[in-house]
Structure formats: structure tokens, C-alpha cells
């Protein structure tokens, strides 16, 4: 058991998370989001090679409501391990900027040509 670092990511941008676990036999991996009393279990893509399993989960255009604790559990018939991280999806704002082009030239604010 352990904890991954907490992460803040921009919302409305797809993010893919990958985690690997090693065991003999290769473990299965489950990923869940815990938000308050609600646990949402995801069905990640699982790849196995020898004794290593890798789970891949893509969250498409997550919103701030997708923020929460993400719990990863790896298990086989001999045991189970888990780890978690708090992932925050936050809006990213950018102040508007002007870009003006004229026949391949860029005219900067305050320029005379």
C-alpha cells in the first residue's frame, strides 16, 4: 500500500493514466474514484506481459466534479495491494490577447508599422 503524489490537471482536456503492477501470476488492476460516499469503479484497459500488468484509463474531458481520490488496487490469488492519489481537475483561464498579421509580418502593440 502507498500513496501516489496528488495532481492538479486542467479540466475539459483528456488525460490518460497508466499504472503497472508485478506479481506471479500477473495481477488484475482495478481503478476507482471515491467522492464522498460514492465509489465509481472504472474498467481500465489491461495489458499483461509475463508477470507485469499495466492498466490504462482515459478520462475524456473531465470536469471539476470528476475530482476526487483515485484508488488503484492490484490483486492476484496471493494478495492485494492498493495506492491512491487525489486528482483535481480545475478550469484553466487565460486572458485574451491580440495577434495581428499583415503579409507575413506580425505587428506588435505600440509599433508604428
Task: Give a written overview of the molecule.
With 113 residues, this protein is mostly beta strands. It is built from no helices and 11 strands. The protein is 0% helix and 59% strand. The strands form 3 sheets. Strands 1, 2, 4, 5, 8 and 9 form a 6-stranded mixed sheet that branches. The protein has a 3-stranded antiparallel sheet with strand order 3-7-6, with no helix packed on it. It is elongated. The model has no long low-confidence stretch (mean pLDDT 87).
Key phrases:
single chain, 113 residues, mainly beta, six-stranded mixed sheet, three-stranded antiparallel sheet, 59% strand
What can be said about this structure in brief?
The chain has 113 residues and is mainly beta.
Proportion of strand residues: over 45%
What does the overall shape look like?
A: elongated
Count of DSSP E strands? 11
State the share of residues found in helices, binned by percent. under 10%
Q: Which series of helices and strands comes N to C?
A: EEEEEEEEEEE
Strand count, sense and closure of the main sheet? Answer: 6 strands, mixed
Low-confidence stretches: none
Could you tell me the radius of gyration in angstroms?
21 Å
Count of helices?
Answer: 0
Structural class: mainly beta
> Mean pLDDT, nearest integer?
87
Distance between the termini: 63 Å
Write the layout of secondary structure elements.
Layout: E1 2-3, E2 7-10, E3 15-22, E4 28-35, E5 38-42, E6 45-49, E7 52-59, E8 68-76, E9 79-90, E10 100-102, E11 105-107
Parallel strand pairs: 1-9, 2-9
Antiparallel strand pairs: 3-7, 4-5, 4-8, 6-7, 8-9, 10-11
Amino acid at each position: 500500500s502507498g500513496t501516489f503524489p496528488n495532481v492538479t490537471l486542467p479540466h475539459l482536456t483528456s488525460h490518460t493514466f497508466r499504472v503497472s503492477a508485478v506479481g506471479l501470476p500477473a495481477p488484475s488492476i482495478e481503478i476507482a474514484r471515491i467522492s464522498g460516499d460514492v465509489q465509481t469503479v472504472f474498467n481500465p484497459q489491461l495489458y499483461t506481459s509475463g508477470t507485469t500488468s499495466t492498466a490504462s484509463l482515459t478520462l475524456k474531458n473531465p470536469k471539476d466534479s470528476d475530482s476526487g481520490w483515485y484508488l488503484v488496487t492490484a490483486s492476484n490469488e496471493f494478495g492485494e495491494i492498493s495506492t491512491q492519489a487525489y486528482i483535481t481537475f480545475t478550469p484553466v483561464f487565460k486572458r485574451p490577447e491580440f495577434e495581428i498579421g499583415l503579409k507575413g509580418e506580425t505587428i506588435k502593440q505600440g509599433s508604428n508599422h
